[in-house]
Each structure stands twice: as structure tokens, then as C-alpha cells.
Amino acid sequence: MSADFDVEFVDRSDRSARFVVRGVTPAFANGLRRAMIADVPTLAIDEIRVIENSSVMFNEQIALRLGLIPLTTPVDEFGPDDVVTLAIDVEGPATAYSGDLVSADDLVAPADENIPIIKLKDGQRLEVEADAVLDVGREHTKHQGGVAVGYRHLQRVEIEGERAEFDDDEPYILRGVIEEDGELVSSDAFDHDLTNRYPGKELHVEDVPNAFVFHVETDGSYTVDELVEQATRTLERRAATLEEAIQL
């Protein structure tokens, strides 16, 4: 990977972003994608202790649903052996939601409060204690902080001239981000059809060398910035380990 790589955001929020990375190889781009999916540790419920469950669901089903609730994971605050306890106590008639989980640590909470767990009828009760642990997505998908991570080449559009008078005006569908006179333009701006942006023009589209557009969405355990930074750190640690092994 070049030390002169550059990052430019196309759009950005806490949980979703698109950004362009220049000056990296396809191998690095794919490594970063895989790291965001599989190598960044997140907290997730791993074991439960059922105090009362008079609902229609078996304990194992309740455990599965609780395990899939994303939990906020403060960066560098927890290690592999740390355990965070959460508890839920809901009595029907009511629906138990992720927001009903109460954490023993103020830094850890459900990333979303409105995830339904189970609907309880009159007289039914769900009271459970749960232990959340830190692990990575390659061990179990419940620890996968990057729920939608992908990339594609940045593409450059150049006008070669006017289209012939009687040429068919067929759609030229392109999805992602294009570079136009040094500016980044999302294909959403022209409904993904280049003929809307360049009517009557003959176009040439090519990949920009070593430039990739990443689309990243998280489950809320991390912000996009934190997820990307953590993934980059895992790549750095792997590279350092490999370098040390080679020197031996």
C-alpha cells in the first residue's frame, strides 16, 4: 500500500458513508473490506440466565434473538475476557423490545431501542440476565459490526464528441460514483443513467487506477469512522506480525 493514499467522503452519517480511497491496490481494498466485516471486535450477548420465561418461546429462541441485538462497543474499553451483564424484565400484556435491556455498564447499550424480542400476553413474563462478550465477525455473525460493506472502482467519464444524429438514445446505466473534471458525482444525481447527464454525447468511461469507492453501513455498534479506523488497525497489526515472522 502506498503511503500517499487519500480519502474523500461522498456522503457521510454515523452509520452509513460512501468515500473514495485513492492510491491503494485492489488487494488492499479487498483486505480493508474483509477486515470491516470479519476482524473488528464487537460486544454481543453470548450467554443468558433465565429467571422466568412464561412466553410461548423456548429459552433457546430468546437467547438467539438477544444475541442478534447490536450493542454499542466503546473503542479500546473492553478486552477478550471482559463480560458486560445486561438484564430484561417485562410482563405482559406488552412487547419486549431491545430498549428494555438494562446494562450494568453505562458505555454499553442496545444500538437500537425498537427491536422487538417477543410479544407477551396477559400473565406472561420474561425475566433474563445476559452476558455480553467481545468477539469478531469471523467467529459469529452477531459480532459483525459492518453489516453492508462493499467497494467498486471509481470511474471517470470523458466526452468524446456528439452522438450521430440517428443513433439510438439507449440508456447508459452506471451505479456508484463518477469523477467529472476532478469532482465526485454520485450516480443518484442522474438516476444512474449517463444519458440524462450527457444527452446527445458520445462518452468514454474508464476505471480510475488505484481508486475505489467504498460503501459502508454499520449495525450501530460503531460509527462508520470507528469501524474503518479499527479495521485499518487490524491490517497494520497483521502486517507487523508478518514482517516480524519474515525477519525470523
Q: What structural class results from the helix and strand content?
A: alpha+beta
The CATH top-level class label of the largest domain? Alpha Beta
What's the tally of helices?
Answer: 4
Euclidean distance between termini CA atoms? 23 Å
What Rg, in angstroms, do the CA atoms define? 24 Å
Strand line-up of the largest beta sheet = 1-2-12-9-10-11
Q: Are there runs of 5+ residues with pLDDT below 50, and where?
A: none
CATH superfamily of the largest domain: RNA polymerase, RBP11-like subunit
Which CATH architecture of the largest domain would you pick? 2-Layer Sandwich
Order of helices and strands: EEHEHEEEEEEEEHEH
Residue share in helix: 10-25%
Note the topology.
Layout: E1 6-12, E2 16-22, H1 26-38, E3 42-53, H2 59-67, E4 83-91, E5 94-97, E6 102-103, E7 116-120, E8 125-135, E9 146-162, E10 177-180, E11 183-186, H3 194-197, E12 201-218, H4 224-247
Parallel strand pairs: 9-10
Antiparallel strand pairs: 1-2, 2-12, 3-8, 4-6, 4-8, 5-7, 9-12, 10-11
